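Researcher: We're reviewing a set of sequences before deciding which ones to prioritize for further study. For each one, I'd like a predicted 3D structure that I can look through quickly. This is Glutaminase. If possible, include the structure in token form so it fits the rest of the review sheet.
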Amino acid sequence: MLCETNKELDELVEEARKYTKDGQVADYIPALGKADPYDLSIAINYPDGRCVSAGDVQKRFTLQSTSKVISLALVLMDRGYDEVFEHVGMEPTGDPFNSIAKLEKMTPAKPLNPMINAGALVVTHMIKGNSVQERFDRLLSFIQQLANDASIGFSEEIAQSELETADLNRALCYFLKQHNRLNEEVEDLLNLYTKQCAIEMNCLHLARIGMVFAMDGMDPITSKQLMPKEVARICKTFMVTCGMYNASGEFAIKVGIPAKSGVAGGIMGAVPGKFGIGIFGPALDDKGNSIAGMKLLEMLSNDYQLSMF
Ligand code: DON
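Model: Here's the predicted structure for Glutaminase, in token form for your review sheet.
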């Protein structure tokens, strides 16, 4: 994909890069610990096909939680609104992404939203297909369409590294299974979920996907409606209320853009009706969001008045 480097963006990246020193790369998934904490890149994809960027935008990273918005879109198309929200709620938690605390307090047990791990596991469980492989292939192919690149794949190394260390997610799954939210083998679901999280791309791809969400599910460059407008609307709403976990309120005030983070350092932004943003900055703050990526979005939003509020 062609993308012009942009001087103003470059200056913002260099300014925001200073904040990387206050963050740390995730290492609870051991293979993610190899990332370079000083990396920071951004791409902005416009509906007319223009793209501007700064930083090393070719660097690939895994989607991690950024994938949760996309699996939600697929599952809403697979199963419809009523079935999906019978099993997962719509409320922010104010807790970390991997917390089990509120799950136990809900009767019946139902994850509060699809962006926390418990909710995302339930969503991934609902991806239709006859096998883990078929469900993964459907999700991957949807992501390839959204990013308009059939070469997108996943990192076996990172998927395996997460699978071997995912005991907290395993615990969430067993809890959910006990409460009849899951009716498949926990290891099968974790296998699918860790592959989903290990889908790999660069921030040019992520910006393109953000642009499709920003344009209500339509890819104006290929003239394909890749998801119904209603599905894109629901996903963007979750990005605002829960996309940055227990930093979502502050992010809405300071940035005001629907966005979703991942622990590999990605942030996907969707500025409604305008453009998509892809950011990669693997040094994270204590809530698991890209520390310099958040700062970069804040500066961008202030400079160009991007807040939707
Ligand atoms: O399940 C996990 O813990 C990871 N695969 C994804 C978590 C994540 O990206 C949280 N985001 N900031």
